[in-house]
UniProtKB/TrEMBL annotation:
GO terms for biological process: mitochondrion organization. One of its GO terms (cellular component) is membrane. Keywords: Membrane. Residues 47-221 form the Band domain. SMART domains: PHB (SM00244). It is a single-pass membrane protein. The lineage of its organism: Bacteria, Pseudomonadati, Bacteroidota, Sphingobacteriia, Sphingobacteriales. It is found in: Membrane. Its main location: membrane. This is Prohibitin family protein.
Amino acid sequence: MILIVLGVFAFIIGSVLSKQGNPATEKTSKLLYVVGPVLILIGVFTSCFKTVEPGQVGVKSLFGKVDDQVLYSGLNFVNPLVKITTFDVRTQNYTMSASHEEGTQKGDDAIRILTADGLEVVIDLSVLFNVKSSEAPKILQQIGTDYLDKIVRPVSRTAIRDNAVSYDAVALYSSKRDEFQNKIYKTIEKSFADRGLRLEQLLIRNITLPASVKASIESKINAEQDAQKMTFVLQKEKQEAERKRVEAQGIADYQKILSTGLSDKQLQYESIKAQKEIATSPNTKVIIMGSGKNPVIIGGN
């Protein structure tokens, strides 16, 4: 387009110089008569070719009217008068976070919601989405190029708030987290689809509870851990008591066997064996054999 404008200016200046009848400017005017049309032709030719970068699509508009035909990446031949608006169709990430360095918008951009039990919970959220190539003309016509601020951000925040009122803070933090994420995913997915966007993934990055609730949860967890520890101790004591009972029963059974199972002759035999071992030992001893069943041992080293 710039070449076309320069060519028109060159042609006009050449025309003005030729009317002066000055031999000095006549050559210049003739040159401009040649250069002007050449610039115009080059400008028109180059304006007919538009390059769309990889990962983008182009939407044509002429005097405010949007063309439904989409230009895909590469070199495209178009009317030199049309305006090309490009859209990024790759995966885009829109993050709302309490951290000043992580969010798409600077500062604390986390979502603050009220749960069913009236507590304020802070949620960090990341939305992964892309623009549908075929829907790019519709987006340009109905929304514009600032779909992040008009669609992605408000729809996501509203879906979070509308669905959070069905859950208690503790359930939202723990047992119902996946259910909550699936529910808001479906809500956002439908809203995006109606506006030419495709939701790829929804990530609840963090859920921050009020300090009082967090303290009570930690206290409950500690109590549960103490209870589990006590259960383990009791089980160990029961096992030890059972071991002692079995041991005592074994000793009792052994003594019962000895008291009922050994005869006098067997006891006499065992006594003779013991006396023999004492007599043959190297230690000096005196053995007095009496009328009793067992000898009396006097002295010995």
